[in-house]
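# step 3/5: fold
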Amino acid sequence: MNIGILTFYKVANFGANIQGVSTYYYLKNAGHNPIFLNYLSHRTEDELKKGYNDSIQVKAHLDFVNNVCIIQTENLYDSKDVERMINEYHLDAIIIGSDAVVQHHPLLSRIHKGRRRPFYIAHPVPERMFPNPFWGVGFANMIPAAMMSVSSQNSRYSQFSKSLKSKMRETLANMKYISVRDTWTRDMMLAIGTTQNIEVTPDPVFSFNYNAGALVPSEEDLRIRFNLPKQYVLVSLHSQSLSVSILDELNQKLKNHGKECVVFPMPNGVKFQHNFDYQVNVPLSPIDWYALIKYSSGYVGSNMHPIIVSLHNAVPCFSIDHWGTKDFFNRTVRDGSSKVEHIMGVFGLKENVRPINAGVCEVSAEQIVTALQNFPKEKVRAVAAERYEQYKKMMEDIIDCFQKK
């Protein structure tokens, strides 16, 4: 079958690149023809064009995707463009997801206290607001479509109006299959009133070694190119959520266990101060990013996909968690909306998650080191194997629903 993939994949985000490539190779290995439908807004397109010219890291993300994902459409800006590609590429079906593709952020949830003014209103790009093609709008009634491990990125669904939920429910009714990546998104779907059976299913990164493992460089090659110590723990933060003194203590305690801290960049580089001896710099290819986590002795950091890569490879990990809904004062609300807290809970590792509040994570170096040292590798391997089996069943169910037409 010719199967379109509609997700965030061509963006300056390591995890989004890797999850898209995982789906691409699953379909390719199964004998199908995967085609990326490159939907984005004009606003995002302008930002990516500027980033490609101005940022060596944005260029690294986009070059990786363009080199690996051979078949991609031109830029698509709305549902009519997607409909046009359905005919041009003779698509038999479309997979939407994974990643945070079913977002909508009501006005009240976008009002926050400002630094220089009483308040401000955030204006998300159209890809993050209903209606848009990620919801199947405009084409899900004309071609088999499935939502695969989709996420709402902690959208405040309790604030959705009745009329909005009615419109969402109408378009979701056209889906042949729906699964979600976290319980918050499942509860959002139920609140909308969809009648489909909604399962919580794995992110495609949980199958990356099986789907696209041939792309991953060897550990020896990686150590030579990045001049890595024998045992290293990656530390990756959005900001100074851990103080320099805590980072110094963390570094010393890990050294006592024969490990070295290595600074691991975000797509926008390193934005926190430290005194570590080792640092990975940008530009960094997404496949090297994946391999650096896979071969590490531990990961401590703020994003979700590095945690998933760690769990997939049974690498000890600790989350400095900034995810979750935010109140008017931009404080994180611990209401179960954090996608990191969800996935760590699946593995029985909620104690390995600490939230960031007001820019600071209240955790000691001793707590982090103890969590890494006591990490239950065999249990994690067993749960990761279960996740892979769940992933395979999900993909088989999706293909089956396409073939039933």
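# step 4/5: annotate
The two ends are 12 Å apart (CA to CA).
# step 5/5: archive (pending)
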